[in-house]
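Fold these two proteins, one after the other.
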Amino acid sequence: MTVCRGCCCGQAEKNPRTGHAAQLARLHAALPPGGRLRQSDCLDVCERSNVVVIGPSAAGRAAGARPIWLGQVNDQDAIEDVTAWITGGGPGIAPAPLMLGHHEFTPSRRNRARVEGGR
C-alpha cells in the first residue's frame, strides 16, 4: 500500500479535520503479514488528497488484479472501508466495499508508473 504524504496529502492545512497520523497507524495495523505501507512524496493528484494506492497481494495479482487508486480518503468511514478490504484480502481476492467506488479513480499513466513501477 502506498499513501501519499506530499505537498497536500497528509497536511492539516489541506484537510484539517483528518487525523493523518491516526490514518497511517490504522492502515499499518490492517496490513497482512509481509504487507508494506509506503509513504510517498507528492503523487501529483493533489485535487484528490488524501490518496491511497492499494496494491494486490501475490494471490490477487495471480487473479489479474492491479493496484487500485483511491482519492479523498479523509474520513474514518473511508479508512474503515479500506482496512476491511485489506483484511478481507484486497484487490483480486475480496470485493471492494461499495462506498470505495466513490473514491476510486484512474491516474495518469505517468503517475501510475511512479507508484506501480511502469507497468
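Now the second one:
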Amino acid sequence: MGFPKNQQSNLSNLPPTILFAFLNYSSLTEYENNNKNDFAKISSILIRQFGAPTSSMKASWGASFEWKFENAQIMLNSNRNDNQIILTYLK
C-alpha cells in the first residue's frame, strides 16, 4: 500500500493512494484449475460495485479488466506466466 507523502503519523486514518492485492497459485496446475472461477468471482464483485469495465482483454497469457474513473483506476489481471491474479487500485 502507498500513502500520501508527509502524512505517515496517522496511517490508520489515511486511505491508500495505491493498493495491490495478490492471489498467488503454487503451480501452473493450480492456476489452470482455479483461475477462471476465481477471476470470475472477483470480477463479478467489481462489476456489481462499479459497472462494466472500461476496457477488457483476453489473451493466451491471461485476462485483464480495467475501470477508469475521474479520481481512481482499478485493474484486475490474471497472469498465467506468474500463476497469479493481481488487483490494483490507484487513486
